[in-house]
Amino acid sequence: MAVYSPFILIFSTSFLFFAFAMARKQHCPSGLLRPATGLGKEKLSHLHFYFHDIVSGPNPTAVRVASAPMTNNSATGFGAVVMIDNPLTEGPEPTSKLVGRAQGIYALASQETVGLLMAMNFAFMDGKYNGSTLSVLGRNAVFSDVREMPVVGGSGLFRFARGYAQAHTHWFDLKTGDAIVEYNVYVMHY
């Protein structure tokens, strides 16, 4: 029968305890988000607003910045890239109270249907979320009734945000291409 020295047993036990403690921290990043960091308890927020995508007139808020040679011949607009700085309002009317802006790009990314790749920030300018942002990155199948896109992050009061945004077309002008889109955003944040 083998005899183990007390040093080896103490060293092995200490090493295993240390390795277990480190592995637990590695696999549980929420351990880094303790209340002492000032983040507090995680909560779910629901935000509701209207997105005004204006491509026509003297002051458009959505401007095509790039396109492929085939874009104008494509039934879906495939290849077009649009930069946006769209108002976000409390109600659907353009004169409704401004709560923020949607800033970023969308690209027509499908050859089969009208599908947008959306990469945008909702920059809030009013109320308790003033100065905070949410980042959305995903596919927007614009002719579907309700579209869902992931919220992939945020800043300010939305640090460590995650969730989803649901878009529903409230109004669309076929002649000009202008649209008002209702957004319901559900986001987990600290």
UniProtKB/TrEMBL annotation:
Domain of life: Eukaryota
Signal peptide: 1-23
GO cellular component: apoplast
Subcellular location: Secreted, Extracellular space, Apoplast
Pfam families tied to this protein: Dirigent
Keywords of the record: Apoplast, Secreted, Signal
One GO-annotated biological process of the protein: phenylpropanoid biosynthetic process
Function: Dirigent proteins impart stereoselectivity on the phenoxy radical-coupling reaction, yielding optically active lignans from two molecules of coniferyl alcohol in the biosynthesis of lignans, flavonolignans, and alkaloids and thus plays a central role in plant secondary metabolism.
Assembly and oligomerization: Homodimer.
Family affiliation: Belongs to the plant dirigent protein family.
Name recorded for this polypeptide: Dirigent protein
Natural source organism: Cinnamomum micranthum f. kanehirae
